[in-house]
Amino acid sequence: MKTTHCALLVLASAMAFTAPSMAQQNTPSANPHVLDVRDMMKGITVSALVTAIDQKNRIVTIKGPEGNEFAVMVDPKVRNLAQVKAGDMVDITYIQSVALDFQKGDGIRMATQTVAADRAAVGQLPGGAAMKQTTMVSNIWAVDQAKGTVMVRGPFGHFTEVKLKDPAMLNGVKVGDQMKMTITQAIATSVVRKS
Question: From the centroid of its chain, how far is CA 61?
């Protein structure tokens, strides 16, 4: 069994996540979607300025580091919104990781999803964390070690070609084995007061 794992801290609360979309192909020869997992973990942190706030409708307008301004509707589950004022800074951290596990033998294709969230305690500045983890077990239909790719048939019957950062991960992997892919997406938000 070969495993590549990227650990993550569970991160933010008022944002939704979308699982990576995969093409719905029914045959391996139908030009499958290519999922590139060369970058196994990515993280980004940005600070944004609160330019306006509508407490009644729970809408916060923020200005990003490149000057782009946009409004965000804040979920009622987010506590202490009344403490946020125009001029506050909001730090947002987003992390995504992909973990692959190649397993011997044919088995059941399946998909599972787990969601977790946390929020600031009563009285603290608003903030929170949320994580979504999607695990898919797929059957391996083709292996091309020279290109560092593997063709898999996913849990919903679709075919996807996966390109790996390290082709050596495919050593010993054969048609008929399985690939378990775990995609973790997490986000954290917190309000930071200027000194």
Answer: 24
pLDDT digits (tens, 9 = 90+) for 49-62: 999 999 998 888 88
> SS3 string of the chain?
CEEECCCCCCCECCCCCCCCCCCCCCCCCCCCEEEEECCCEEEEEEEEEEEEEECCCCEEEEECCCCCEEEEECCCCCCCHHHCCCCCEEEEEEEEEEEEEEECCCCCCEEEEEEEEEECCCCCCCEEEEEEEEEEEEEEEEEECCCCEEEEECCCCCEEEEEECCHHHHCCCCCCCEEEEEEEEEEEEEEECCC
Which residues make beta-bridge pairs with 143? 150
Q: CB of 112 within 8 A of CB of 71?
A: no
Range of the domain at 152: 2-192
Q: Of 1-15, 85-99, 120-134, which gets the smallest average pLDDT? A: 1-15
Greater pLDDT, 19 or 118: 118
What is the pLDDT averaged over residues 114-135? 86
Query: What pLDDT, on a 0 to 100 scale, did the predictor assign at position 10?
Result: 25
In one-letter notation, the amino acid at residue 166 is D
Indicate the number of domains in the chain: 1
